[in-house]
Amino acid sequence: MVHVLKFGGSSVAGATQMSRVLDILETPMKQGKVVLVASAISGATDILLEGQPQKLEALKLRHLEIARRLFTGAERKQVQEGLEALFKELDAAPQEEKVTYGELLSTRILAWKLQADGIKAEWLDSRQLIIKGDKHKTYTNIQKAIQAKDAQVYVAPGFICGTPDGGVSTLGRGGSDYSAALYAAALQADSLQIWTDVPGIMTANPKQVPQARTIPVMSYAAALDMAEHGAKVLYAPTVKPAMEAGIDIEIRNTFAPEGKYTVIGAQPDPTQWIGVSSQGGTLRVTGSQPQAEGLKAAADALKEAGIAAVEMKQDGASLELQVREAVVNQALNALHRTFFEELPVQELNLFIAGNGAVAQALTQMIAQTADSVEKRTGKRLRIVGRSNSKSWGIDAAGHPQLAPQSGDYVDAVIARAPKGSLFIDATNSETLYKRYQELLEAGIGIVSSNRRSFAVPYPEFAAMHAAARENGVPLRYETTVGAALPVLESIALGANSCDEILSIEAVVSCTLNQILGDYRPGGESFAKLLLKAQKAGLTEKDPRLDLGGKDALRKLLILAREAGVKLEAEDVKVEPVVPESLMEGSLEAFYEGLDAYEPQFAEAARAADRQGFRRRFVASLEKISQGYQACIGLRNVPPVHPAYHLSGTENAIIIRSAFHPYPLVIQGPGEGAREAASSILNDILR
Ligand code: ASP
Ligand code: MG
Asked: Which ligand sits closest to the CA of 106?
């Protein structure tokens, strides 16, 4: 086995660092031969290029100090003499060769140290082996050199090389990585390890982007793309020889040898986006495959950060963006957030009951918003179960189909739903609530738009809540009053903060609001408008249920209970819109009776009109000296009343509490499948 390990300037900066390098060599040495390629000690190349005598003198002292600390006795003397000789050679060397002495010095020290430790080490002269521009020669030179001398460790200077005409040159700044790749490729090495001072190639330069993290595996292509566009951790020409020889490149951290690192190899990239780098004002998001949405995501990221891109383009699988240099760091961070800081995704499994308009609107809404919801909240919504009255289906992969089944849907949900799933009651069932407790006890939360479930006798209502609390799962039903209007939440907030509720007035019957709003004495009769509404599907099948205030009663019970008032249906005084006598018998008889009642209805409307009032169907709860009083019926409301201006399917809920002189008024669209679906979605995500 042959391992090639390259250590950069900061990894050999001093005696301590060099000792660390020798420690790291122990593992590969146990497995076979090692080629140790090293840079000059940090800063040396710059000093040699500058040629300033004082700095050169300091550089010499640094090397002598390393020798003093690594060696003792006679060996120390020998090494220091060897270094003095090299510095003399450096003095005499032609200007263009001086820069090569950094690597000559550092690698000589390492080779001497290995020998002093009793390891069979040979120093290789890269100037004679690596011939610039001649790959074939280079490879055969290296192979011959290794065959010629048997050793455990071969120590070779990085960066420096020879020229075809026998001269001396370099492979370019940062070129030691490339030297190591040439040694590795020539020897068909088992590994090429580039040891540096950061934990591998990261998603961004950590000095610019604190959130940057190590990329564990990446393709040669992605590594090359990043290296060519500003990622300094790897010298770009390194990739090609390794790739041609099929050798993985490991980028590892000398200062945390057991820590995270990067492996670059032939395998495809596991992710779409690899990393972001910059050169001047040019930013590059390296990608693994061309993706059309990339540019838009990048544009949005910059826009959100208030940065204007001068230019943006797709370049192969990657994105290139031009910004003003002053905002480069900001832009890098913004891009990094969008492409590399995905919130950890939490899967949310949904089991929907009911397949009516609300359930269908919800399904559609989830399909449309799942991606943006996931981006915003880190929650991935997945509909895993669905049902109607006759059939149901459950599919863990998220494509449940309705089909007749022998078993019961809720039983199946309880048996199969992972803890933390949500059961969505989008039915109008009178009995489904009886299963809520079992669901909650199985660790399944409930979101419901079915107000029948909460208008049940108070002890049952309280038991449901207790089960939710005890099992630490949600039980939410904001949709049951005013659809998407945040009604229950507002009441609960007030109740929780001991803001004692004095009264609640709810104008929540959409059917009646609409009809009363359209009604003009002398115009279309009340019966006609009601029939129209019935035909438009705005009423219950038997519209008398609306007139009887049953629906408003359910809503009032829910509102009151949310405020902490243990209201029961029997406690509510309901005055139907039309005389009790009409409320029984056939529907035909009802409409006939309603026609006969029209003059009285018109007169009441005229009377209200004369006083400047409007008639509204109001459900109210009011604190009286002993407890609360609840009633439902037609009321005349003055122009200052919030319900005066309601139209269409608008709802208004007016809450008065002890602490505030002004009421809290919640007003807006209170009905519709879409509104209900969006409210359910809010409850799901809360
Ligand atoms: N010592 C050279 C430089 O600083 C080569 C290297 O470190 O890779 O550019
Ligand atoms: Mg370097």
From this structure: 1
Residues in CB range of 447: below 8 A, 6 or more apart = 422, 423, 424, 425, 474, 476, 477, 680, 683, 684
User: Contact, 622 vs 629, CB < 8 A?
Assistant: yes
Site to probe by mutation for ligand 1, drawn from 49, 126, 173 as the one with most ligand atoms within 8 Å of Cβ, is: 173
Ligand 2 geometric centre to CA of 163 (Å): 22
Residues 6+ apart with CB under 8 A from 556: 504, 506, 567, 572, 619, 620, 621, 630, 632
Residue 513's pLDDT band (boundaries 50, 70, 90)? confident
- C-alpha torsion angle, residues 484, 490, 492, 497 (rounded to 10): 160
**569: buried, middle or exposed (CB in 10 Å: 19+, 13-18, 0-12)?**
middle
Are 108 and 83 contacting, i.e. CB atoms less than 8 angstroms apart? yes
Tell me: the pLDDT tens digits for 287-329?
Answer: 999 988 899 999 999 998 899 888 999 999 999 999 999 999 9
Which residue among 99, 103, 176 is best mutated to probe the pocket of ligand 1, counting the most ligand atoms within 8 A of its Cβ? 176
Q: Are 480 and 454 in contact (CB under 8 A)?
A: yes
Distance (angstroms) between ligand 1 centre and the Cα of 100 equals 10
Looking at the CA of residue 172, tell me the nearest atom of ligand 1: 9
DSSP one-letter code for 389: S
CA 157 from chain centre, in angstroms, equals 45
pLDDT in tens, 331-343: 999 999 999 986 6
Q: How far is the CA of 39 from the centre of ligand 1 (A)?
A: 6
